[in-house]
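Hello Y.,

Per our agreement to keep a running log of every chain we model this quarter, I'm adding this entry. I've kept the format consistent with earlier entries: sequence first, then predicted structure.
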Amino acid sequence: MKERIIPVKNILPGSIAEEAGIEAGDIILSINGEKIRDIFDYQFLITNENLMVEILKQDGEVWEIEIEKDEYEDLGIEFENMMLDDAKSCNNKCIFCFIDQLPKGMRDTLYFKDDDSRLSFFMGNYVTLTNMSFDDIDRIIKYKMSPINVSVHTTNPDLRVFMLKNKKAGDVVTKIKRLIDGGIEVNCQIVLCRDINDEEELDRTINELGYLYPGVKSISVVPVGITKYRDGLTSLEPYDSESSLKVINQVEAWQKKFKEQFGSRVVYIADEFYIMAGKDIPDYEEYEDFPQIENGVGLIAQLKKEFEEALEQLDSEFECEGKKHNTAKDSSLKKEMRNISIATGVSPYSYIKEMAGVLENRFKNININVYKIENNFFGKNVTVTGLLTGQDLIEQLKNKELGDELLISRSMLKAGEDILLDDYSVTDLEQKLKVKITVVDNDGKDFIVKVLGKVL
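Predicted structure for the entry above:
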């Protein structure tokens, strides 16, 4: 086993660790005599009620601390690195890899390809299982790392070897079955590449994965993302209206079949396919418990539902206010005109425009300009809002009427920071566009709050 040095970053006030005298800067040597490889060793070991924690103090002394606690009670220790180890990098060369389609000169972290089951468990990342042995699979089972999100793409072994450019890629179904037999729930992703893993191959993949339900809880079918930076890479054809509709009809037939057999649709289609086909997004209820919403599956249906529920809440508040003060429904907002703008990607534009129109009709003192931003940075085939860059926003909005405030989606920003993909900050945008910028969460209620400038 690889021995790790595990330094403590912080101790939570009032925690077991604080009471035991553990401090920031201490190094954990072992727990109950066992060395720690990563976060899962640590979390597994601290579930016990009786612990012997070996600590190296900053003055060089080694302490052995006995701790009695409730089972699964946390110690209150925070670490520099959530994983306690470096993330495992991807050893595939997938024909559709988005990172391989990035231009040069972007920040280094964007070029790192992870393929780490721990990040799948913690962050919802998708893993291919190609860099995992069956011993690694058994470790996932031992630590109950459920659910795990797996990028499958195809269950045809030879085709998967070709698509991932990895000779070890063909055993994915065997590994998924091993996970399921060990009690691990699996969500599967199919990145669909036109004329490669669609049509008959898609039927095969959905069939083989779908009949592993409920071990395979869900399957998502998403279109390949194609940027303009594909020189020297496998030729890929983007989906269009006709081919997208064909995918929808094919997958919806499987949904109907699974719904009749299992009571669940099991397989779900990314919003992008419906938008490209010019077909209405399915109703909210058809996504069941939204198992893959972070994968762009059902995102718009949920946004619309949240929007409608927040509007009902507003109506209720105004009704109560009207009875109390005998005033009109929109009296609380009948002040000076509020002029704002919204920047969004091509894919969700019509839905954002529709919601903005509802608010304009209801509240006469609000004027909203919604701008569709095309992705010149990555190319016209990239249409989602989350991949818009600062330079495209600046270039396409610099001569537009932006009003007093510009709303942008949080999906454009790096997690936990106000930085876009091309390293423009929100402050940079404000300075370049000379307008206040407000970040909107991916939530229908927050959309209303930020548009109205009113807390619900």
